[in-house]
Amino acid sequence: MSYTLRGRLESRLAALLPPLLAAVALASVLGTWWPVELAGVMVAALLALDLAYHPLLPYQPGWTALPLGLVEFGAVMGAVLALGIGAPLDIALALFAAGWLSAQVLGHGLLPVWRLSYAEDGGELGRAGLLVLGAVAVPFAVAGAIWWSNLPPVVHLPAGIIRGPLVVDRREHLVGSEGSVVLGGIVVRHSDVTIRNVRVVGGENGITVDGYRNVTLDRVSVRGATLDGIHVRNTAITIRGCAVDMRGARFGQGIDISFGAGYGESLVQGCRIVGGQQGILFDASNGMLRDNHVERTTLRAISMDEMSMGGIEDNTVSRANGVGIYCNDHSMCMVSGNSVTQTRADSAGGNRTRAGYGLVVDYEAEAELGENDFARNPARVGIFLGAQIARLEE
Amino acid sequence: MRVAIVGGGLAGFVGYLTLVRGGVEPDAITVFSPELDPAAAWRRRAAAIRQTHMRSESDGHCLPTSFPGLAVREAARRRSLRPLVQSVCDRYHPTVGDFLEHVEAVGASSGWSERIAQTRVERVHAVRDGFELDGNGPFSHVLLATGHPGHALPAELRDDPRAVHSYEPHSYGESVCVVGAGLAAATEWLNALDAGANVTSVRRREPVRRPLNVPRPYLSKRGLRSFRRLEPAVRAALLRELLAPSYPAGTAWDAPLERARKEGRFRVEPSVNGADQVICATGFLRGYEHDRLLARLVADHGLATADGWIVLDPDATVPALTDRRRTLAVCGAAGQYAYPAADTLAGARFAGHAFLRRCRTR
């Protein structure tokens, strides 16, 4: 068949209708979004490939369905993985196979019988092509509408001082504006909450999240908290671009994420933390600490403790007291791309682990080390009490 | 509504089957043809060149839809997937016998012979709401399927007693000169070699090697869009280029020729030599002026032409004689201005589909 571009796209959309309907049915039965997301990725990837094929294939023999099918499967699965769509492989394979089979049956059999001029029209479906386009678009439009209508409400904080503690007890996006400051902290008491561009001053903890899921803190700043800057318990959280100033807080941590194992992976990325006992503490939690800057902590700058597991990547630490990065107590840490400088020795009391190490791996912990810069410290790497280090396989 | 098909060859036959498939009552269709057998002319030509397999592939059949083609039917008959695999690889070529059997079967089941008015139409005359065909009619919609206007013979060989056209019955002499470079010529090279002759190929140009008569994109809108945008003269020039003699590539053709060349039994020369026999595999006369009906049609109605072709709209209709109420369409070789492969079965289907749209909506 020598497809026109329109014919190629219309024939493809017609072939994708059965798997799309199956995906919609599956999503309805399971009450989950991934089948629709998977179908959406299939439609987008295959249409994109059709655009790429068009100039390359002035004529497409029937046998090319097999090699092109393999390329298309690879592209769809690559997109699914890249976008992190949680579709089970067997169902993804089944939907793709249904689309492929449908393309063969329709293109070689049904469409030429139904539309006499299908071959000479280069695969175009005439007015039915618009119906097919509509039939493909409707499920996505409906899904988009449902998604849109379920978006949490956006609450804009006005400029000025808001006396707290501010309790967020529903799904919402809390967005600060220029000059808005929350005094006394924020307590999150609901899942699906995003807090963006909010400045918090004071409070026992600057921001508290305990047990609620799908919380994101985006570009928040915390200053003057008496305990922790950001205090997270029993959940996984995403924190990006935060600024936490813990100078003057004797016992608090900049960010303390504890007991989060089993709730998924947390992410702390692009944050700047000054002061406090520990800048970022992962305790019994999983996740990634990346691209953060931590300085002038009194105990350790970055800690993974108590069977935590995760990556400590591309962070910069300076002027920490005693220990820069700490991997302790059966934790498994991947430490790579970090720069730790000017750590001060704190072993006057006899604690050898606090001799100003760039990295300490302690008490049965295992650390895999990539390229790190620990040179400009009194000591580089300390390994204690049955801990192990290994070279990180990049 | 009355519909007429002028010409009962394969193109007319496909047109008829398409109309019936599209819901036009068979009683409303009249086919003007001196012969009852739609494959009669084709059968004679295939027999003359001893053709065994079709050049066309699975969809080289007379039915109105490209699917199911002859490969599917053969697979079902033989209970074998081989024809289907060959078909998806563009390697399936039905035998001439299978094709003719298919024509007979479809002809018998479609009521074709009952629709035939056994006469040759000499003149098409446009009237207010249609066309009169030698006084018959009027017919609202007419499909002209006049076929090839005759065999082309090089002028210098017209009076040569050794010369025979490849499409006329013939045997082979001891030394044979084959003029031409298309599928018929290639078939004749192999036939004559098989018959033990020494063969000389005379050609004005090296043959084009391609699977079908025209490049495949010209079978669909993909290639046709740019073709149809061309000015008439440019389009006619491209058409001549596209219709240059060609035959498929492959060892089935090349190996016997190479073997014969090594044995000194096959050679290429620029002009006819002193061979016992000259076979003119030079195809058909080209141009409406060689067909009496078309020549009169152009003259009577002052139709636009381009280098021997009647200028047609993309749906193969004659623009000056087609309007809201009536249709005059052309299929077969005379329709190549609209569809370069019009003289193939796929081309007949194309014209049939377009004609059906006109009949169904008017």
Walkthrough of the structure:
The complex is a heterodimer of chains A (394) and B (362). Chain A is of the alpha/beta class and 394 residues long. Chain A has two domains: 5-149, no CATH class; 154-391, Pectate Lyase C-like, CATH 2.160.20. Chain A is 29% helix and 32% strand. Chain A has five helices and 30 strands. In chain A, helix 1 packs antiparallel against helix 2 and helix 1 (5-30) crosses helix 4 (89-114). Chain A is elongated, with a radius of gyration of 27 Å. Chain B has 362 residues and is an alpha/beta fold. Chain B starts with a strand and ends with a helix. Chain B contains eleven helices and 17 strands. Helix content of chain B is 34%, strand content 16%. Chain B folds into two domains: 3-150 and 285-361, 3-Layer(bba) Sandwich (FAD/NAD(P)-binding domain); 155-207 and 245-280, FAD/NAD(P)-binding domain (3-Layer(bba) Sandwich), CATH 3.50.50. The A-B interface holds A 1-4, 7, 58-59, 61-63, 65, 108-109, 112-113, 116-124 and B 18, 21-22, 59, 64-68, 87-90, 215-217, 219-225, 339, 346, 349-350, 353-354, 356.
